[in-house]
Every structure is written in structure tokens, then in C-alpha cells.
Queue: 2 jobs
Job 1
Amino acid sequence: MADEPWDDNDDADGAGERPGRESGTATKTRTRTKKPALYRVLLLNDDYTPMEFVVYVLERCFNKSREEATRIMLHVHQNGVGLCGVYTYEVAETKVALVLDLARRAEHPLQCTMEKD
Ligand code: TYC
């Protein structure tokens, strides 16, 4: 599980510091902190979701100002896909679920995905 985002890679050499297992060789146990992997949350264009709803979603789920939300919405509308934000795995997953839930409740086909940064 050394590649999980929550593994800070303590004791990276696996040797540990348990008593009674000294080999006579001086070793230094490295305490390395690994930065968590980051994920891009992307919004996808479609022909049916109202622009105003997309702006609302960006304000509500991604804490964007009305101006920034409008800019991102128009970018997605014109380019097919756009960046909402970059987050750790669990936060990104939660944001995607929030967007999809809001869209489903409003019966809009709006799609949102995440990918490794
Ligand atoms: N293309 C949509 C329309 O013309 C607007 C839209 C923008 C939909 C961004 C989805 O992620 C989206 N009503």
C-alpha cells in the first residue's frame, strides 16, 4: 500500500527501529513525507444543461465567484471540458458526487469527472 495517497512513507527503507535487531551497521531511518496525489475535477459540456445551472453548480460546489463561475462555464461550453479545481483524492471524489447529485435532482445531464493531476 506504499503508493496510496495517504501513505506518508514513514520508514521508507522498511527496516524499522525495533529493538534487538541491530545488525551492527549504522543506518538512519528516513522520515520522508510524501505529498498527496492531486486530482483535477473537470466539468463536461452537453447540449441541455442550462448555463445558469452550471454557474450555480460552480458557485455552490467549487466556491467560485459569479464572475469566475461564468468564465469557467463559458470555457466548457466552447471547449467541451473545463477545470473546476484541483484537490486530494477524497475531496475531488466528494465534489464529483455533489455535482452529479445536484444535476440528477434537477434532471440535467451535466457530467463531471476527475483525473490524476
Ligand atoms: N452547452 C450548454 C448550453 O448551451 C451549457 C453548458 C455549459 C452545459 C457547461 C454544460 O458543463 C456545461 N445550454
Job 2
Amino acid sequence: MSKAYEKNTITEDGQLLLKKAERDQIETVWDRYEAQLPQCGYCEMGLSCRVCVMGPCRVDPFGEGPQKGVCGADGDIIVARNLCRMIAAGAAAHSDHGRDLVEVLAEVAEGRAPGYEIKDMEKLKRVAAEYNIETEGKDPLKIAGELAHAMQEDFGTRKKELTLVKTAPEKRQELWKKIGVMPRGIDREISETMHRTHMGVDNGWQSLLLHGIRNALSDGWGGSMIATEVSDILFGTPAPKLTAANVGVLKEDQVNIVVHGHNPVVSEMIMLACQSPEMLKLAEEKGAKGINLAGVCCTGNELLMRHGVPMAGNHLVSELVLTTGAVEMMIVDYQCIMPSMGDVAACYHTRMISTSDKARFPGMTHREFHPDNARELAKELVTAAIENFENRGEVYIPVEPVNAIGGFSVETIVAALGGTPQPLIDAIAAGKIRGAVGVVGCNNPKIKHDYGHVTLTKRLIENDILVVDTGCAAIANAKAGFKVADAIEFAGPGLKEICGSLGIPPVLHMGSCVDNARILVLASALAKAMKTDISDLPLAAAAPEWYSEKAVSIGVYTVASGVYTVLGPMPPITGSMNVVRLLTDGLNDVVGAAFGVEPDPEKAAVLIRRHIEEKRENLGLPFMKL
Ligand code: BF8
Ligand code: SF4
């Protein structure tokens, strides 16, 4: 174990590869973070504005310098505007990803997407029914076409409200209507945020933030939910699968291909190509024992959930995965792919391929995937990766992989419980499980890599709180060994008993970041079964190491759905005490939940436990005072 790198990451593979990176003179995200210090205080507080060219402006937080921008906007307005723009960008990222899937579904319906098909017929019919599409005796491709069309309308402006919003508990829907945040078209809310935050439009910090909530809801109950549902329809609804995590999943004697990004449209085709006998034969001819596909970040989570494809690492180690020298090819789509990746790869034999018409990167070869060429292009790329095997130099894979189980869709969780959420509710009522928490989100060099996720998760499960996770948090917890049946040894006695009897780990991998929609569906199912609202349940969420605009959108729709959410890093809002008070307290009176901010996961665990016990007390369940 390397002492010098312990301050950056708790992971053994991360520490050892950081040492290797230093030896190879590779600059990493941590080096660049340090070079940026001290970061701009105005920006950190949300008090700088470059919305127009009368600026850029800043408001002095100490009251000595300017208190208003050139246009007259004060700190409250500037902070609220900046936050809303973060929500819009995050909602756009998730929702545009959803749109890409809907477009593939439409192409499948037209027979123009060779290699793609409808994998989950039951889900196709169930989701179609939500859209009031008649399915009885109808050809599945016709249903798929009509569903794709109806979903496309959700993106536009033809409806008063998004279709899937009606799957939320009724009380929640009524509340959203009452306070005027019922999301309409997905694109419409994003576009309206950009309009409202233009100079001289919405200058009420409260009304801005209220629209920010509506925009975020259009992501959670719209774009992200559509992304998840259509991914399940096209690629199958996940069920528990054995897999493995950390850089040790790379294989010295095989061709290693790593997929990085978010959209399964590309990675699923790569996986199929990797499995084809023709490709396996070619790999053998080139002296490799096989083709090993691994994931990084959320496209990795998508493959892990559905096929058990192993996970090489999460966001902050994406550069380090390349320093193993073992990766023949990395294929990326979009989101969270550092623009430095091409530079790192240039020091090894790794070939870097970008695939999305909307995402280019320095040092990568651009090979664009579209539904009509995806199958053939995937084969071409895998062939090129195999041919690159002989160009390998030194290989350094310093750790053994950790086993994990992934693939807990709501469907499989409910099935494991015997077809209804009732046993889970009974366990919560009896106090064997005190509550459930979604630990989600990214890595961020401001927090020691994986420390936030792993520490918080450990404290929660040892206090009988069930953890569900997604995104980079889920990868961190897989690497920490929390996702095997034996991990019940880390759990408190009640959680251990329940998970032990069901044969499931105490930490359930629910997928990628768009799959936070699955957590909404689960929370909604619990609330409906208990005939109450989500905000009454002993639930919470946490994003201990978040960094991205997507995470801001997720946080806001989670709180707006009634779930207390604790953030690790502070969002850029401290320049306005009005905004801080609203988000951390005032929202309780508006949506029945608010944010907490606590970078220390030990303290975050206490905040969450206290919240859960309070909710239990309110429900008349046995509770303990903390
Ligand atoms: O969508 S958790 S670092 S990879 S943003 Fe990105 Fe954050 Fe990872 Fe996935 Ni989500
Ligand atoms: Fe400055 Fe106002 Fe323009 Fe922002 S919108 S840059 S505060 S003048």
C-alpha cells in the first residue's frame, strides 16, 4: 500500500496506480485539482455571473465591494439563477440520453436497427399501458412505434403534464399541482429555465427556484425514467447477476476492451460483438485467451446490471484504468468522460474511440454509432482492439477483483419479496429494518475517493438501514465488498436477518444515474402500499461525493419527491443565505423534505439516522432517540 496516495483515495488499486501514474509521468485529476487551488471564492459561493456581456459580475460576500451586478441583480438572484442553470444542464443530460433511447426504439419499430430488438415484451406492454396505448393482440413492433411516438411527445409541449408523473403517489401529485411544479414537457422545462435565467426575465429568487424544482422533476419522473424504461424494453430488465469490481477485472492474457460513458445503445452492441465466435476466434489467433469486456462509470453499470459485465472503476479512476497498460481499446459515448483521457491513452498502446454525434474528445478517433450501423461498427471496433493486443507494452494489474452482485431492478426486488413490497414494510414496521437510503452520485477530488460512499454505507447498514445505490457510489460499494451475500456480516442484526433469509446483500445495486428513477419507483410503491406520501416514510438519500450538474438535478427531484437528501460537497449557494435557508429548511414546508450538507460521512450518517428515527416516530413505529 502506498502511503503518499492515501490522502487521495481509500482504494488499493487507486493508490497503486497513482504511484504508477507518477512513475509514467501521467497527470491525473488530482494533480489538476491541486493546480487549481485556491479555487475562485465568488464562484464557490455562486456569486459570480456571466449570463450577459454587461458582465461578468460578482457580488462581494463581505458587503464591502459591489452588492449588485451591472444589471442590478443581487446575490439572491445570481445564486438562484446559477443553480437553476445547473439543474437545466443536468436534466438536459439525462433527458437527451433518454431521447436517444427512444429514437432507437422508434428505429427498431421501423425495422431499421439491425442487432437491436425488444427484449422485455412484458415491460413494453406495461409501459405502453401507462401511455394509454392499446396492446391487446397488437404486434409488438407496432406497440414499440406507438410508445416511442408517445414518449417523444413527453419531450415536447403538447401535454399538460408528463405521462409517468401519474405513477407517483396521488398525494405527491396533488402537492406538485398545488405549488405549481407539475412538470409539463421535458424540453419545455429546460428551455424555460434558460429563458427565465436570461437577463431581465425572472428576478424572483423564489419563483426561479420553484421552476428549478419543476425542471428537475421533468428529469426524474420524465427523461431519466424514460431512459430507464426504454433501456429495459430494449436490453432487458435487470435481474441479480454475479460480477466483480476494481481494476483487477482486467485480464493480463485477454484482449481488454473498456466501455465508458452512459448510454447502453453503444455498449450493448460492443458486448454482442465481443461474444461473437468470429471475434473470439480472431482473438485466439492473435495469441489472446479471450476478449474481456469491462465497464467504467454508468455505461458500465448498465452492462453490469443486465449482464454481469465487470466494473473496472468509477469516475476518479477512469484515467488510472488506462495506466495499467492492459487496455487495448476504450470506447466512450458521453457524460463524465474527462477530456484528458486521450492524453493518458497516448502514453500507452490503448486506442480511444468516441462514438456519439454529440461528444468529441481530443486524442480520440471518432467512429459514430447510429442504430443502422451499430452492429457492424461494433464488430469493426472489436476487430481493431484485438489487432492492438500485440502492441502491448508492460502490463500492471496490481489487485485481485472483488466479487459483487448487481442487477436489483424494482421488479426483482419485489419478486424476491414474494410479489409485493409488504414484507419490506413489515420488516420496517417491526424495526428490523429501520429505513432505506439511496447512496448515489459521483466522485469528486474534494472528497477522498470512495471514502464518502463507503463510510456512509457502512454506518447505515450496521445500523439496520437498507442501502440501495447507483452510479459511482454503487461502484465504490462494490469494490468495498458490500455487494455479496456474505456482506450481511457488516449489517446490524435486523438487516442481517432479513437479507440473510432473502439471500441478498445489505447494499442493493440499482444501476446507473438515470436509474435513480428506479429508486423513485420503489419509494412510490412503498408509499402507495402504506397509503401515504413518500415524505412520510423513513427514507433518505445521500450524494457523498457528487460533482456534476446531473447530480444537482437528481438531488432537487429527490427532495421534491419528498426524500431528505444529504450532499457531501457544498453546492455553490452560500452567497445567498436566503437560498441556503430555503433549500436546507424552508423546503420542508413546501415539499415535505429538504437538503442537508455534510462532507464528513460519519456525521452524515448521524443526520440520516436521526431523520429516519423521526419519521418512524411520526408513523407511530418503534423509534430510538439519537
Ligand atoms: O451519471 S455518478 S460521476 S458516471 S454523474 Fe458521472 Fe456522477 Fe459517476 Fe454516471 Ni452519475
Ligand atoms: Fe452582470 Fe446582470 Fe449580466 Fe449577470 S446578467 S453578467 S449580473 S449584468
